[in-house]
Write a structure and sequence with these properties.
This protein has helices at about 35-50, 65-75, 105-115, 135-150, 160-170, 190-200, 235-255, 265-280, 295-300, 310-320, and strands at about 10, 15-20, 20-25, 55, 80-85, 90, 95-100, 120-125, 150-160, 175-180, 200-205, 260, 260-265. The chain is an alpha/beta fold. Helix 6 links the parallel strand 10 (about 175-180) and strand 11. The longest helix is centred in the C-terminal third of the chain and has 19 residues, at about 235-255. One of its GO terms (cellular component) is cytoplasm.
């Protein structure tokens, strides 16, 4: 067991979580088929080794991800810090997705998530995407009412700008911002990360391993036709070939480091880089890598022991500057589009 290797981190609003979390989206078929029995075993293993901050959303698997996590919570609720999200809804008229942040939908979504999760309270409730039609003050005000009602303990926001975060914190304390952040996704460092540090809000990077690309184990050109990553520009054609250079630098740094008696892995280096960024910016950072396999959780834990030298950090920073392609193909889907 590696439980002793993880310390507790105060994100914001006095919300204590494990120093690495687990992103549940990977347990739904967005990156290919997922076996529910293996998925539940992976979740239990995460908690066994001290990764107790579990992240999901109502839209993952159209609710099935929350239902899966409910099976974990049934016997281990007191061991888990539970985060879920609302705000991305299906649009029956178009067959696509829409964003909703109106107060009625806030309450409706929370009730549905609580039912699927089979729990009385959500520890951290995120607005998944900002609804441009609704002032963020109204959305956060409705979320704050859930706190007053005892249905939610802490509030979070995903993919918000610095100014949106400031407006939200004027309504209610925000425990965490969740946005994509990794060696190849650094746009959040321009505004929202410094704002989070200034406002006392923790940061939860999703896709901290570049949706698997930064691990060096992903053959991007062999992705299944229904793999979500095929929609992301930086996984397309020439871009993915150019971005392989980033992985090579990560591999080289990994070869210079050891975790215990073994050579460090690219995944461990990528996570250690993020933890170092948190110290650079002066704010708590808790990455939430996701995986279907228990062994990957054990591997990820090794990141907390790695110390990167100034030269290694400089090499990784330089590699990050050469990334080709956007991290999203949808206008205004990520905060940098609105900064």
């Amino acid at each position: 067991m590696n439980r002793r290797r993880l310390m507790s981190i105060n994100l914001g609003d006095n919300f204590q979580v494990s120093s690495l979390g687990f992103g549940g989206m990977a347990l739904t078929p967005v990156y290919g088929p997922s076996d529910p029995t293996e998925a539940l075993a992976t979740l239990n293993h995460a908690v066994d080794v001290g990764v107790s901050f579990i992240d999901t959303a109502n839209v993952y698997g159209m609710g099935s991800n929350e239902e899966l996590i409910a099976k974990l919570l049934k016997s281990r609720r007191d061991e888990v810090q539970l985060a879920t999200k609302f705000g991305i809804a299906s649009n029956p008229a178009t067959g696509g997705r829409e964003v909703r942040g109106d107060p009625a939908y806030v309450k409706e979504s929370a009730a549905a998530s609580l039912k699927r999760l089979d729990t009385e309270v959500i520890d951290l409730y995120y607005l998944h995407r900002l609804d441009a039609r609704v002032p963020i003050e109204e959305t956060v005000g409705a979320m704050a009412e859930l706190v007053q009602e005892g249905k939610v303990r802490h509030l979070g926001l995903s993919e918000v700008t610095a100014s949106e975060l400031e407006r939200a914190t004027a309504v209610h304390p925000i425990a965490a911002v969740q946005s994509e952040w990794s060696i190849w996704s650094r746009d959040v460092e321009q505004s929202v990360v410094p704002a989070s540090a200034r406002l006392g809000v923790g940061f939860v990077p999703y896709s901290p391993l570049g949706r698997g690309f930064l691990t060096g184990t992903l053959a991007a050109k062999n992705l299944a036709e229904n793999d979500f990553r095929r929609q992301i520009p930086r996984f397309d054609g020439d871009a993915v070939d150019a971005n392989q250079a980033v992985v090579e630098v990560i591999r080289r740094v990994a070869s210079e480091l050891r975790v215990g008696e073994a050579e460090a892995t690219p995944a461990q280096v990528a996570l250690a880089w993020l933890l170092t960024q948190g110290r650079r910016f002066g704010l708590p950072v808790v990455p939430i890598p996701g995986t279907r396999r228990a062994a990957r959780i054990d591997e990820n834990l090794g990141a907390v022991t790695l110390e990167l030298s100034d030269a290694q950090l400089a090499a990784l920073d330089e590699a990050a500057d050469a990334v080709v392609g956007s991290r999203s193909n949808t206008p205004n889907w990520v905060s940098s589009d609105r900064e």
